[in-house]
Amino acid sequence: MANSPKAGGAAATEEGPLAIRDGPLELGSLDLEAWLPRPAAPSGPRQASTSAPLSSSPAASEALFAVAIEAWRMKARVVRLKDLLSAKELRALEISVTKMEEALLGAGVQLDDPQGRPFHEGDPLEVLLFEPSPGLARATVLQTVKPAILMAGKLVRRAEVVVGTPGEAAAKASDASTGKEEDPS
Fold first, then answer.
1. 128 pairs with which residues across the strands?
2. Distance between CA atoms of 136 and 173, rounded to whole angstroms?
3. Which residues of 40-71 are buried (b: 16+ CB within 10 A; e: fewer)?
4. Is the pLDDT of residue 10 over 60?
5. Which of 61, 93, 116, 165 is the most exposed place for a label (fewest CB within 10 A)?
6. What is the pLDDT of residue 170?
7. Terminal CA-to-CA distance of the chain, rounded, Å?
8. Residue 96 has pLDDT above 60, yes or no
9. How far is the C-alpha of 167 from the C-alpha of 181, rounded, in Å?
10. Smallest Cα–Cα separation from 15: which of 2, 25, 26?
11. Are 144 and 113 in contact (CB under 8 A)?
């Protein structure tokens, strides 16, 4: 019993600095170190370890990418639901989505949604479907199924998209402007 006083034949009935002791207590026999407060653990939010980047763990990266895609989907849902929500509910959801986006950016994750952009062969996109769209003058990304994911500015996953292609009328107009003739077959 390291903390129990031995002077004057006193014996402790428990161990530790708050032990109940029999007999007279002598100050010289106290372990004052045991009574001193220990430094408190740091308070506030825990900071991520900078020793190993998240991208070094494939499972952690995949989880982070899944969260990023769900945050992107949530943002789109908030936009669609804005007329059904009260101003207070809408603001709360917008704040939550913004905080998720900021946290992801802090981890080096960025999303790129190419919806509405012109499509060019060779773009780093995974085209799930080419869909004829009569109103288009040129191939355009009509829908993003999943956005592209960039980690520290580098593309790690291509966007999955549906590309609208010009309808027959637009294709004929394009052919006429380039001097191509229609195939008579």
1. none
2. 11
3. eeeeeeeeeeeeeeebeeeeebeebbeebbeb
4. no
5. 116
6. 44
7. 103
8. yes
9. 17
10. 2
11. yes
Whether residue 181 has pLDDT greater than 80 = no
SS (H, E, C) the chain: CCCCCCHHHCCECCCCCCCCECCCCCHHHCCHHHHCCCCCCCCCCCCCCCCCCHHHCHHHHHHHHHHHHHHHHHHHHHHHHCCCCCHHHHHHHHHHHHHHHHHHHHCCEEEECCCCCECCCCCCEEEEEEEEECCCCCCEEEEEEECEEEECCEEEECEEEEEEEECHHHHHHHHHHHCCCCCCC
- Asked if residue 27 has pLDDT above 50, the reply is no
Structure tokens at 101: 């986006």
Separation CA 120–CA 19 (nearest Å): 79
Beta bridge partners of 163: 130, 141
Single-letter amino acid code for the residue at 172: K
Mean confidence (pLDDT) of the chain:
75
Considering the entire predicted model, what is its pTM?
A: 0.58
